[in-house]
Records
---
Amino acid sequence: MDTRVHDDPSHAGTASSVAGAREAIPISLIINGRQRHFAIEPWVTLLDLLREQEHLTGTKKGCDHGQCGACTVLIEGKRINSCLVLAVSRDGAQVTTIEGLADGDRLHPLQQAFVEHDALQCGYCTPGQICSAQGLINEGHASSGNEVRELMSGNLCRCGAYTNIAAAIMEVLDKDGAP
Amino acid sequence: MNRFSYVRAAGVPEAVHEGSAKHVRFLAGGTNLIDLMKENVERPERLVDINRLPLNKIEDLEGGGLRLGALVTNADTAYDPRVDRRYPLLASAILAGASPQLRNAATNGGNLNQRTRCYYFYDPATACNKRDPGSGCGAIGGVNRIHAILGASDQCIATHPSDMCVALAALDAEVRVTGPDGDRVIPLTEYHRLPGDEPWRDNYLRPGELVTAIDLPAEDFTSHYTYLKLRDRLSYAFALVSVAVVMRLDGDLIREARIALGGVAHKPWRSPVAESGLAGERASRANFIAAAHALTEGAVGQGDNDFKIELARRAIVRALEQAAAGTPQSQTDKRVL
């Protein structure tokens, strides 16, 4: 494994502290509301850090090339492909994964809507779909079904549950009265 | 991915200094670079992370233009109210490209500098003069459905994949760069190269030079414009052919028309002959067909992509009709009207 946990929070990343580093670099991230510290090699992606360091395996590695959207997480509330982000480059960022959406045992409205609309079959793409949908809601550029489908096109579903995925997202959008 | 060292540039001078060394790449959004590193196409010895540099603003220019910082994301650019209101062609083209996730990470500077999506360039097991100079071109005589029909050479038939740059070419944008020898401004239309006999060079940036901003001139193309993108699926795919048009009309007389093609060459493709041929003429289908032929003058198919020549001509005519009618292509409702 390329990463190891770093417990010393004094290693806040600064320009000078990382100059020329080829070995592990200290960074901190706020992951699902918890401050976490790491010492990681610069080639570790955010996806690998989440899965292998934090054991947050809800975020999936699908294509690992930014083509499928299974690795979608939110950084500062914006959805991105975590497979194409080097973790060192996001030092200090707030990251939200699928594990951070529910409120204890109470499902997030998108999770509830996906269940009610049967918006999945195998479920592999679902965490990415839901994080992406939360990003879509945060962005506020979609209200019609056409807009939801266009702005969810970065998330592929091999099972073809698209109709129900769009319906689930539309229901949450309508309940929010947004945007 | 190969092993590399990493430095976070604290300022532009430090970035330029670091970037001037060999085998170094600037890291911005990383959506193309990290992918290419995973494929072993890019194997930098060092990454210079420029994400903390103060190049992340969109600013009004004196005289009414707009300056897009190199580190502003594609999404923040497309949804900026000033861009949306004053440069709707640009917003439309950006939203035609990639996915929301990618647009949230990809930057304006990175969009300019992204590499071709030629399958041979991406596959180190094959010949590619762009990736491995002198090794040959697998695409010539190979599978070349997505490849160039204009401006190609006998060494490379790759295309530039950007949508954003096609709009920037039509808008006569300028690229601001800084480097070891100071600052300079490069017209967008002269920023990217044709492959010629140095296909490994995508653009005219010199070693160490860093894109700092893209300037949009103060011109009003808010009434007659369109970005028409044709591809194998309706969303989240690169263009087979795309057309950006901006136009100024007096009644049905064309005062000025600019047409840029994407997906067909190593750079956004414009033709002074085609554009001057429209100036002063009526906005008629016959004149649009003539412009389409002028713009695709010299087009050559490679076999699989022969269809692109006629597709490009028809797309040009349709885009000119959309722009003249003031009915730009919707990027949500994909029907081509």
---
Amino acid sequence: MTAQDPVYVTDALIAQDIDAYLVKHQHKTMLRFITCGSVDDGKSTLIGRLLYDSKMIFEDQLASLEYDSKVSGTQGGEIDFALLVDGLAAEREQGITIDVAYRFFATDKRKFIVADTPGHEQYTRNMVTGASTADLAVILIDARQGVLTQTRRHSYLVNLLGIRNVVLAVNKMDLVDYSAERFYEIVSDYSHFAKQIGMDSFLPIPISGLKGDNIVSKSPEMPWYQGPTLLGHLEDAPISDMAMQDRPFRMAVQWVNRPHLDFRGFSGQISAGTVHPGDPVRVLPSGKTTTVKSIVTFDGDLTQAVAGQSVTLTFADEIDCSRGDVITRADAPCEVADQFEATLVWMSESDMLPGRPYLLKIGTQTVSATITEPKFEVNVNTMEHLASKTLGLNAIGVVNISTDRPVPFEAYGDNPDLGGFILIDRMTNATIAAGMLHFALRRSQNIHWQVTDVNRDAHAAQKNQRAKVVWFTGLSGSGKSTIANIVERKLHAMGKHTFLLDGDNVRHGLNRDLGFTDADRVENIRRVGEVARLMSDAGLIVLTAFISPFRSERRMVRDMMASGEFIEVYVDTPLEVAEQRDVKGLYRKARLGQLKNFTGIDSPYEAPEQAELVVNTAALSAEDAADRVIEAILRSQA
Amino acid sequence: MNSQAHTAITPATLTHLQRLEAESIHIMREVVANAENPVMLYSVGKDSACMLHLARKAFHPSSPPFPLLHVDTTWKFRAMYHLRDRAATAAGMDLIVHHNPEAMAQGINPFDHGSLHTDMWKTEGLKQALTKYNFDVAFGGARRDEEKSRAKERIFSFRSANHRWDPKNQRPELWKLFNTRKARDESIRVFPLSNWTELDIWQYIHLENIEIVPLYFSEPRPVVERDGLLIMVDDDRFPLRDGEVPQMRSVRFRTLGCYPLTGAVESNARTLPEVIQEMLLTTTSERQGRAIDKDQAASMEKKKQEGYF
């Protein structure tokens, strides 16, 4: 064992005067940091060393560590600190860490939370997750290897996540004979690269995690290094929350607190600035103003609250305010917009689909959002910008985002709480991407909805009908167009004003630029949905006949329409039957591999779960099916 | 923090306990704003006491808008039952106590049934209670520093319809943005104390003057020594072996569970500062007093996948 005296254990105060010790330790601050490096950089060893030196390891753990080191250690029987931070059984078997793990240790000055992320192909997702809550990043470099591709990747991600406090820990100095020359060579290489990615500053420290050099105390092996030790720097580095206190007040409302009729408070965690009773505030997006009446806590009302605290505010006036709203200083509100440019980090196995509606959670608000094709994708190894039509797992790209409601926000770089967001898949509920807002797109601010005098109800009333969108969905050859055609003919005969949008016809004009990839199918349906909406605004009964294979997009169109206006008709025909009919000869081509992305063959069809009407064309004739549809339409006209 | 703590420090520097407190409150409010039917698991230990206190802070002046659930084994220390009922009343919360009826019928006990005792009363009992009351989110007091496999568990941890945990399929948690969406039959376990350490808990209890079970403080108690553990004879259901006579010894407990399974430590720490002092000077980890961990290295992880909290 090469351990030096663990400096932080033997706080004499613990034994002599525990009360004095407790008072001292109640005033500790907390720093969260992330360590970046891959398996060979000695990351686990460094974290194990920090835990060991700050005496976070108990004797029983040490005994099992010594035992484990002998059995499965990589340090020839010496203590293998890496084993301390190893976790799940599956990882142990594979010998790799597969996720983000959080470790804790403390010194006299501070409590530390370390996010430890592994260095394999899932790296981007895990590192972005770990870095999102970090005040500081330690980027590890193997002194023998110098700046590698992965160092660039780690640094790019750290910078992307807005971490301003970066330590370049040049590790394994013991293996390069503690050479100052080697150290400065690496620092010079790294400086050059840091400038390229816009990293303002970093602190280089030569260390050996294994031997303990410059971790807790100055290394006698490197008298040429005059800077702080790693732990010394961690104890003094600034904390993000504190920097946020100088900015204008912001608090996203989490929960409206109404214990009884005489109390209405707005609970949330302050993300920027300070607040006092009497402060004028503005509630966004409504823009209504009032003043703060009181800052209510369990321990009594406060005279001031600051960024980082969770509080409950009451207002002097009764104004509308609910979860998702942001309370801001009245004379310095944040922006509100519904179209943004943002960087996305894709975290899902399924590729991003431009145009598909995803849920977007920002602050305490969840809205529906669609994404454009990436302006570019970033190669995280070379920082090059690449053209791309989508983003796959671990890809990073810049996109435009449009939300279905105005969202109060700040640029991520100014306030991560109001500029960082996640995307959620509506069907699986998985978190599929993390994003950082850059700025609002001006066009959303300058184009307002034009209110017209003759409104949709007036249009429909003149035609003596109610506007409807009857959406036929089903496999190719299921009979959608045939049935829709009969329905329109009969409605027309009844004097109804109708219009039939047919899949093939639309693809000859409006959508002729679109192909049959998943992304193009999504855009196809989005455009048809918008056209159907305009026609329903004109008071028409709109019939559409599109395969529309994905639930998400049918849901999107449903959400565009007024409630009760959308009638989903599932033309339920078994694949075998549709394929047997093969009216257009497409199934045969698809089976021969001459037609790619054909629904039912090599592209999925997601059947509706709650269609208003299901017609089974294996059991019903087209005429009978059409009659059922007409019944449903007429019922909805009553 | 109490108002004294507020004036004692400059507002620009939130202490580590203030930051942890604010984070836990934020987590609890996110749950209440999104869940349909949340519940707080309450085991009467110090972590539960801390979590309950934080819940009262999070929703003040309202009472925490969810009930407490104690999945009982009938084998807890008597002192724990006393505090349990009092704490629920003080917080203005409903207390639900669940006993696994099968374990009850079969008379499952820690003396005759070994690990089956934990499986049936706790693991099965918890699943039964969550299903019976249709709770969709359950707060638990687990901390990441307790055990290696916990270090990687999320704050929001999703369970399948049959309450299993899949460590390979967890959602990434970024910033303060918790994705609380789930399918109809899934449930979520939420751990608001994830980032607290044992020392943080003790300091907070001290600073906030939170009532805890007196068993944490040393006192002469009747104990017998078995398999290297000091076990307290808390009631007359304890089957003494031949020649075994309970000895009065000054002991306390570092962790609380079923009394026949919880080892005491000899100690003279009678006050909270003394307990903290002893903890800081001690050389064995908290979990050593629990018989449950002894099986094998990855035992906690296995239990967790099966649904043990």
